[in-house]
Write a structure and sequence with these properties.
five-stranded antiparallel sheet, 6 helices, elongated
Amino acid sequence: MSLQLPRKRTILAWHRWLGVASALFLVVLSITGLLLNHTERLGLNQITIHNGFILDRYGMAGGNEISAFRIHESNTIAHLDGQLFYNRTALSAGHPPLGILEGDPITVIATKDELLYLSAEGELIEKINSTQLPYSALHAVGISIDNQPVLITDEGQYTPDSDWLEFDRYQAAYSVEPLPKVEIDEATELAILEQFQGGGVTLYRVLLDLHSGRLFGWGGRTLMDLSAIAIILLVTSGLMGWLRKSRRQQTEKQAP
């Protein structure tokens, strides 16, 4: 009898603290579940979230600085978190430009591992990656002594033909000047951010990911899984305790 009392107290304490720890997650599951069950009535798909913390969880915050470069006299090529923009319009995913080489009829934007061919109106004609180029990584874009572009790569220097279809080895002198950045106005910056964020995240998506724990990555999913297991243990141990107590009371009633 003396050994059973401390054991019983330990089980009751474990049961109590496990219940307290899982209560918060149970409340979150209940509230988000109720809201998700009435998605159409509440219009959760029509409500968009633009909060910086939420957008950051989905990789849409655009927290880095926007880098902009001059192209076609009065236009700009901007780069933000792996996305290129022509003025205020999304152009393509890619690294920051290392060189902008204007020509007729195409303009070439050279990045670390790609060449983007643009029309005079800024439309993307074609994109060539490193599997189609004679090099794997571009380090800089220079100018030869006869004013031709030189691609400085990890495999050496190359010069393109006039159509940028063939590339020849280049071993003569060349010069390199950094691509100058330009300032963009606030309206263009806000338009780029809106393009990058894609209009925000719907409240339905946020609640769904909060309900499952995915909003906080693997840690959130793990906590939700553990809370679900804790609730199962609580219910199971509670039922088993109730059954034992019920049997004991029934046995005591039947005893002479």
